[in-house]
Amino acid sequence: MKTIITKEEDIDVLKPREIVEELDKYIIGQSQAKRSVAIALRNRWRRQQVTPELADEIAPKNIIMIGSTGVGKTEIARRLARLANSPFLKIEATKFTEVGYVGRDVESMIRDLTELAVSMIKKEESEKVQVKAVELAEERLLDILLPKKREQPQTEEEGDKEALLEVVKTDRTDGDSTRDKLKRMLKIGKMDNRYVELETSTSNMPTIEIFSSSGIEEMGLNMREMFGGMMPGRSKKRRVKVPEALEILAQEESQKLIDHDKVIEKAIKITEQNGIIFLDELDKVAGSNSGHGPDVSREGVQRDLLPIVEGSTVTTKYGMVKTDHMLFIAAGAFNISKPSDLLPELQGRFPIRVELDSLSKNDFVRILQEPKNALITQYKALLFTEGIDLQFKQSAIEEIAEISNSVNDRMENIGARRLHTVMEKLLDEISFDAPDMDNKSVVIDDKYVADKLKDILEDENLSRYIL
Q1: What integer best gives the mean pLDDT of the chain?
Q2: Which neighbouring-strand residues pair with 278?
Q3: Fewest C-beta atoms under 10 Å: which of 81, 256, 343, 397?
Q4: Dihedral of the CA atoms 176, 180, 183, 187 (nearest 10)?
Q5: How far is CA 141 from the centre of its chain?
Q6: With left for phi above 0 and alpha for psi between -120 and 50, is residue 111 left, alpha or beta?
C-alpha cells in the first residue's frame, strides 16, 4: 500500500520512488538528480536503523550536481528539504575566503543553519501552545479593558474604560458577570474597533555586524548577551486596536509557555541529523594555477570547507554543533573547471556525482503548465485578483517556449529563468492596465505572443537588455 504524506509524517520513511514522485510535482525532468537525492535522504533513515556504534561510522552520501544555471539544481534541494521538514541553507561558496582574507568564515554557515533550526522548532512549539496562549492573552486583555477602582481623578484612558463598563452593564443578561459579558463581546468581534494601550519592551542594543577573517567572527556570537545587562531594554506604550493587542499578548504568552532549553536541544539535534546545506558555485572555488588576484584563496576555501564536510564541531551561541551527519549538496556549472580540479580529499566527501540535462523547448512547455506552482498558474492567479480572466491557448504556450529556448541559444543560457523574463515582458501591458480594463476576459494566443515580442527578438542588441 502506498504511503500517504501528511504534515506530521517524516518523509524519511518514504521509499525513494515516492520521494521522486513528490519532486515530480514541482520539477520537470532531471530524473537522475531526483533519484540521487532520494537515495541520499533514504540513507539517513537507513543509518538510524542500524546499531549506534555502526551509525556513527556511516558517512552521509553527499552529492555534486553538475549543470548550468536554471536547470533545477537549487529547486531540487529546496523541495527536498521542505518535504523532509529539515533545516535548509543555500549559500554560495564564493562568499567564503581562506583564513587571512576578508570574508565570511566557513563555520558561519553552520551557525546560520542552527539559527534556522531554532526558528523552526520555536514555531512548532508555539503552535502547540497556541490555544493556551490565546486564552491567557484574552485574560490579560480583559484586565486591561476593565477599569480599576481608584480614588484619584480619572485619566482619559480610565474614562474610556468606565464608558465601556456602562455599555457592558446595559447589554448584560441576568446571571452574567461583567467580565463574562466582556469576554463574549471580545470573542464575537464587538470589541474589534476599540483601542487599548499596551506596554511593550524594546531593546536599546544596537545592531553590530562583524566583517572579519576566520575566528574573529565568533566574538560576535554572544555580543548581544554580554551587553544586554549594560544596556537594558526599556518599556514603550503603544495604542493599538483590540485584535492587534490580542495577537501581541498571545505571542508574549506563547514565549512564556515554551521550554526554551528543550527548543535548543531539539534544534541542535535536527541540525546535526537532518540539516541540509546547499553549497552553490562550488566550481568557482575549484583549484587554479593562478597565483594572483581572487584565485589566490580558492584552494584555501576548499581546505577550510574540508573539515566541515568531513565532520567537525562548530561553536554556536546555542552550543556545540557536530557536522558529521549533515547532508551537503554541492552544485556548479563546471564549464571551465571540473570536479576533478577540487582537492582530492574534498572530492572524496562527495561520492555521488550527477549531471543535470539542459532544458529543451518541450521542457519549457511542461514547466509553464505542469508543476503545482507553474508560471501560467501564478500569472492567472495574480491577475484574477483584478478580476481578469487570463487564458493561454496551447499555441501561445508553444510560442513562449520556442522564444525562450531561442533566446537561450543566442545569448547566455539561463535555463528556466528565461521563462520569467519572457513572461514579464509579454504581460507587461496587461499587468499595468488590469485595474482599468473593461474587458475582463483576455485570451493569449501565438499571434499575441509574436506581436508583443517581435521587435525585441529582431533587435539582438535590445534583446540582450530586455530578455
Answers
A1: 82
A2: 90, 329
A3: 256
A4: -60
A5: 33
A6: alpha
Q: In the chain, which residues fall in CATH 1.10.8.60?
A: 361-466
- Buried b / exposed e across 61-92, counting CB within 10 Å, b at 16+? bbbbbbbbbbbbbbbbbbbbbebbbbbbbbbe
CA distance 353 to 149: 74
For residue 297, the tally of other CB atoms under 10 A from its CB is 19
What's residue 144's pLDDT?
84
User: Over the Cα atoms of the chain, what is R_g?
Assistant: 29
Task: Give, in order, the Cα–Cα distances in Å from 174 to each of 167, 171, 179, 181, 432.
Answer: 15, 10, 13, 10, 59
DSSP secondary-structure letter at 275? -
Which residue do the cell numbers 551561541 mark? 317
Tell me the C-alpha to C-alpha distance, in Å, between residue 259 and each of 29, 124, 256, 264, 319. 44, 12, 8, 9, 16
- Is 3.40.50.300 the CATH classification of the domain at 11-124+265-355? yes
65-96 confidence digits (pLDDT tens): 999 888 999 999 999 988 888 999 999 888 88
Residues 292/296/298/303 CA torsion (nearest 10 deg): 160
Q: Report the alpha-carbon distance of residue 141 to residue 244 in Å, rounded.
A: 11
Q: List the one residue out of 62, 50, 103, 83 whose CA is nearest residue 301.
A: 103
Residue 330 contacts by C-beta under 8 Å, 6 or more apart in sequence?
62, 63, 64, 65, 93, 278, 279, 280, 282, 350
What pLDDT was estimated at residue 5?
A: 39
CATH code given to domain 361-466: 1.10.8.60
Tens of pLDDT along 317-327?
Answer: 999 999 999 99
Average pLDDT over residues 170-185: 67
Neighbours of 233 (CB within 10 A): 12
